[in-house]
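Worked problem 6 (solution included).
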Amino acid sequence: MSSFPDVSMEDVETIAAVVQRTLILLENQGLIDADRVPGLRMELNMDLTMAHGHNPLRLEEMLTARPGDLTHDVLGIHQNLNRRTGGFRECFQPRFAVRS
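Solution. The predicted structure is:
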């Protein structure tokens, strides 16, 4: 089982902003109900933090990404993150993964 990764406080704050933007987009499109937001916010924050710690993301770019690209990555990470290893299932690759 993978331990929770060490991520800087600055990255944690940026992840929270990315998650907030994603939730606003989803709510505005009628894809989630307001009562689901608090629990989903926590899940997405944890998932993005785990993903970023194991597979670094270009977080600053996610803050200004087109809505479709942002939701692809955030929801894709949420659905495909292996929480034991920090890797991804189903060959998922975030669009905002750091390029090597």
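Discussion: The chain has a mean pLDDT of 92.
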